[in-house]
Amino acid sequence: MENILDSIKKLLGIDEMDLNFDQELIMHINSVFMVLNQLGVGPVGGFKISSNEETWTDFVGARLDLESVKSYIYLKVRLLFDPPQNSFLIDSISNQIDEHEWRLLAQVEPYAITAAALLETDDELER
Q1: Number of domains in the chain
Q2: Residue 106's pLDDT band (boundaries 50, 70, 90)?
């Protein structure tokens, strides 16, 4: 299983053994997890990492339809941690982030509707 912190470090061009930026990266990654939680992606109670122990499976479980979460977190962390100097590149990354957000929201929305309906049905059965 691939851990979240080291895979993001690899995408940013940081060696896994280099621990100098871990706390800053963990803070940024956790900020993105909060955004994903607001979009309805991931565990209901939220999710955070504190080291390189947490894996992608810990966050998305067995769902194969949420692989773009990895790209989304990388792009968001890149803009927070090491933004490009070129405004055109920043715009391009921002557009990719917007598309990932839209697609993730569209992917989890049917599940959210189903979950809400199940909760409503449970409430009616309890009455």
Answers
A1: 1
A2: confident
